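Sequence design from tokenized structure. All designs in this work follow the same two-part layout: the structure record, then the generated sequence. An example of the structure record is given first.
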């Protein structure tokens, strides 16, 4: 007998987080041991993330079932994509590099008691994950399951994405009201024209109303664009520390399994550093969204320290070396802005480098009267002339220079930050190598005493 508990639509990274959370809650309430709770939730997260990354949308259904006297908690993840063409080779292989295509399926398969996957180019993909329940799970009644479903629907936890959706719905309601006011104002305007001089004052009031409508429409359009950019920024900027945490956790698990506790102890500060970095990013991004662009606190930043910190946070192959300007400046500015700009530019130079050795990334700086000039130059494959004007817009770099691990957001985030500061960003590339340059207000330069 199978009893459905909960269904969730999977459309983005935050839905993946929600699926992980519900998997943990259900497995805990059904009496699983903590280790098995984590295994089941991690398997759910891996498959749901595959849906988001490779298809875009899908769904998950949690159920409880009894099969031949054994109780299971089941997660059924489905999508309507084009299927997985190399599924037999993925299932046959036992070794995957972390983050490679197919690693999510392989990892999830190891974490559950029952695993089944069906994939078809016309029907999409269906993945079934089951974890055994202790005996007390069998005693859960339908009324209890219904009560849990109600609790989840009334869950008061508010994520940044949920708050954005709520605000966006409110803005759409305001837009609809303004549309109705516009129709009413236009009707009144026709009547005002017939009344001539006697209704001159009313005519002025209507004109003012129309001006307010246009101003508010422009404000709403800008707010919607900012909300969209904010949601994408959260997803884009949190991926790097999450991937680092995943890699460190995998290595840590291997050390523990092989009883190399000294090596494991060395990795703990690295793990803590990545979580602290993620906390700084979340705090800064929320400040960016909730406090307003001009309200982010400034601080004194030594780029001679900040830029190496950015480089150390990235996954840099041994084949790539760096050349930094001898004297990078000290600025009084927003740390989250400068961190994102350098992280995205340097990260792209690393990501798109196409040779096994001799990679070079040069970071230079020139001071001007009104603007500071920064450059990040590489000896990579270069950028074709015909697409250089596109890459600073959202998703365009992914179309111009396709990569499976690129979200297409990094350069659009850089452009938004630089324009917020009043500066400019551009690229120069002719043949091999690219030089990304941007300007920063010289008034933020701290002159050393």
């Amino acid at each position: 007998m199978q009893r459905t508990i909960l269904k969730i639509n999977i459309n983005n990274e935050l839905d993946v987080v929600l699926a992980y959370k519900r998997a943990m809650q259900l497995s805990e309430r059904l009496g699983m041991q903590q280790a098995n709770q984590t295994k089941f939730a991690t398997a759910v997260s891996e498959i749901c993330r595959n849906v988001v990354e490779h298809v875009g949308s899908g769904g998950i259904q949690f159920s409880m079932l009894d099969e031949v006297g054994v109780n299971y908690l089941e997660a059924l993840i489905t999508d309507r994509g084009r299927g997985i063409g190399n599924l037999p080779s993925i299932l046959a292989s036992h070794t995957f590099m972390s983050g490679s295509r197919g690693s999510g399926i392989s990892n999830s398969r190891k974490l559950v008691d029952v695993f089944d996957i069906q994939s078809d180019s016309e029907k999409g993909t269906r993945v079934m994950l089951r974890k055994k329940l202790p005996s007390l799970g069998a005693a859960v009644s339908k009324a209890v399951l219904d009560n849990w479903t109600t609790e989840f629907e009334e869950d008061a936890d508010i994520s940044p994405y949920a708050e954005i959706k709520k605000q966006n719905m409110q803005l759409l309601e305001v837009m609809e009201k303004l549309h109705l006011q516009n129709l009413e104002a236009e009707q009144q305007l026709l009547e005002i024209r017939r009344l001539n001089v006697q209704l001159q004052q009313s005519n002025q009031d209507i004109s003012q109303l129309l001006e307010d409508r246009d101003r508010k429409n422009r404000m709403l359009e800008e707010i919607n664009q900012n909300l969209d950019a904010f949601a994408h920024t959260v997803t884009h900027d949190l991926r790097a520390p999450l991937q680092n945490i995943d890699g460190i956790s995998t290595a840590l698990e291997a050390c523990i399994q092989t009883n190399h506790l000294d090596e494991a102890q060395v990795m703990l500060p690295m793990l803590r550093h990545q979580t602290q970095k993620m906390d700084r990013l979340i705090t800064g991004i929320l400040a960016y969204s909730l406090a307003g662009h001009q309200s982010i606190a400034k601080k004194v930043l030594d780029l001679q320290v900040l830029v190496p910190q950015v480089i150390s946070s990235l996954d840099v192959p041994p084949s790539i070396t760096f050349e930094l300007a001898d004297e990078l400046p000290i600025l009084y500015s927003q740390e989250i802005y400068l961190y994102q700009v350098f992280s995205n530019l340097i990260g792209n130079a690393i990501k798109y480098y196409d040779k096994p050795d001799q990679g070079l990334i040069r970071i230079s700086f020139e001071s001007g009267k009104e603007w500071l000039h920064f450059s990040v130059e590489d000896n990579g494959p270069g950028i074709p002339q015909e697409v250089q004007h596109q890459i600073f817009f959202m998703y365009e770099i992914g179309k111009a220079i396709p990569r499976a691990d690129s979200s297409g957001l990094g350069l659009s985030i850089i452009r938004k930050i630089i324009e917020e500061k009043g500066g400019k960003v551009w690229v120069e590339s002719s043949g091999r190598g690219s030089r990304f340059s941007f300007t920063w207000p010289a008034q933020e330069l701290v002159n050393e005493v």
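DSSP finds twelve helices and twelve strands in the chain. We note this feature because it recurs in several other targets discussed in the main text.
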